[in-house]
Amino acid sequence: MSTNGSRSDRPERRLVADAVAARKRAQMVSGLRGLARPGTVRPSPGNGASAGPAGVDRSTEHCDICGTSIPEDHRHLLHLIERRIECVCESCWALRSGDAEYRPTGSRIVWLPDLNVPDDLWASFQIPIGLAFFMDSTVTGCVVALYPSPAGATESELHFEAWNRMRERNPILEQLEADIEGLVVNRTSEPPAYAIAPIDRCYELTGLIKAHWEGISGGTAVEHAVAGFFEDLRQKAGNARRAPAREGPAHGELGSPALDGPRAWGSTGGEAR
C-alpha cells in the first residue's frame, strides 16, 4: 500500500477506536444502571459509610472511632471483618493500628500499563462490568473481587483457578500487600487501565459511583468521574522496578514491555489518603 493510502487509513482507524471506546463506556453505564434496579445488588459488608460514634454531627468530618474533628487530609484504617474504611484522627490511628481488627491502609501506587489480562481470563471472573478491584483478605483467606455499583461495593465470587492464572501471567501481583492494597481495574477505557493502589483508594472508586450517579440512567458525571480517578492514579505513580515475567503479553497487547514498565508512587511510605 502506498504512503498516501496508509495515511488515508489513519482517520478511519481512529474512528473505529473511538467507536470501540464509546461502546465500552456505554456498556459500563448500562451495567451500573442494571445494578441500580431493586434486588440486583448483593452489598459487601463494607458497603455503607461508617456511622461513627452516636450523636456525632456527620455534616463535617470526624474520626469514626472517637468522634473528634479531623482535617480533610486525614488517615484511614481498614476494619478487617467488615471491610470498611474508617476515617481516623492521629491519636486513634496510632492507638488502633496494632489492633487485631484494624490495618493501616497502604500508601503506594503502581501503574501497570502492560498487565496481561486477555478477554477470556477477565470473563472467567464473572464480573458484570468493566470496573473492579481485587484484594487479598486475611479474614477470608482468599482474594476477594469487588466492583462498584450505585449502592456501593458489591462482592463477586472469585474462582481461585482464574486468579492463579492471573498471577502466573503477571508475577508483579505477588507483591500485592494483603488487606491494605488492591488491584484496581478499568476495562471500560481504551487501553484498559490497571494499578496497585491503597485499599482506601480502591473503595474511593465505589464512592465516586455513588456520589456521581444521577437519576435512573446515571448521567455523564459517572463516566467523567471514573476517567478522572484513573488519571489521578496514573499521574501519582512513579518509577518502579519490573518484576520478571513468566509469560509475556501477546503481540499488540497493552503496550511494549520494553517501554511500558510499572510505575509506582509512595513505595517508600507516606500517609494514607
Question: pLDDT average, as an integer?
Answer: 73
Question: Low-confidence segments, ≥5 residues, pLDDT <50?
Answer: 16-58, 239-261, 263-273
Cα distance spanning the termini: 53 Å
Q: Could you estimate the helical fraction of the residues in percent?
A: 25-40%
Report the biggest beta sheet as strand number plus sense, adding barrel if it closes.
7 strands, antiparallel
Which overall shape is indicated by the principal axes computed on the Cα atoms?
globular
Order of helices and strands: HEEHEEHEEEHEEHHE
Strand content: 15-25%
What's the total helix number? 6
* Rounded radius of gyration (Å): 20 Å
What is the count of β-strands? 10
Largest beta sheet: what is the strand line-up? Answer: 7-6-5-8-9-4-10
Structural class: alpha+beta
Keywords:
alpha+beta; 273 residues; single chain; 7-stranded antiparallel sheet
Summarize it.
The chain is an alpha+beta fold.
Notes on the protein architecture:
- The chain is an alpha+beta fold and 273 residues long.
- Helices cover 32% and strands 19% of the residues.
- It has a domain at 106-265.
- The protein is built from 6 helices and 10 strands.
- A 7-stranded antiparallel beta sheet has the order 7-6-5-8-9-4-10, with helices on both faces.
- The radius of gyration is 20 Å and the shape is globular.
Secondary-structure blueprint:
Blueprint: H1 3-35, E1 75-79, E2 84-88, H2 90-96, E3 102-104, E4 109-111, H3 119-124, E5 131-137, E6 142-149, E7 152-156, H4 160-169, E8 181-186, E9 193-198, H5 199-212, H6 221-236, E10 263-265
Helix pairs in contact: 5-6
